[in-house]
Design brief:
Elements: H1 13-33, H2 40-56
């Protein structure tokens, strides 16, 4: 019996690792730029930049859920 293409989670590992690395780098940069969150003005600017990135994602929807299969 052979396994299908998506039967192993290791298929997604390279993408996951890449996203984790990017997140860690951005988190570190944000912490430095905002003095670990003590600079509220800079933190607000960074927050707004992230919101703008999210807004640019056409398929992003925080409240959307796919329809359940019947």
């Amino acid at each position: 019996m052979s396994k299908g293409t998506f039967s192993s989670a290791s298929f997604f590992k390279p993408l996951y690792d890449s996203l984790q690395t990017e997140m860690a780098e951005r988190f570190t940069l944000a912490a430095k730029e905002s003095d670990a969150g003590r600079n509220a003005e800079k933190l607000s600017i960074l927050h707004n930049e992230v919101l703008e990135e999210i807004h640019q994602l056409v398929d992003f929807c925080k409240t959307c859920k796919p329809q359940k299969k019947k």
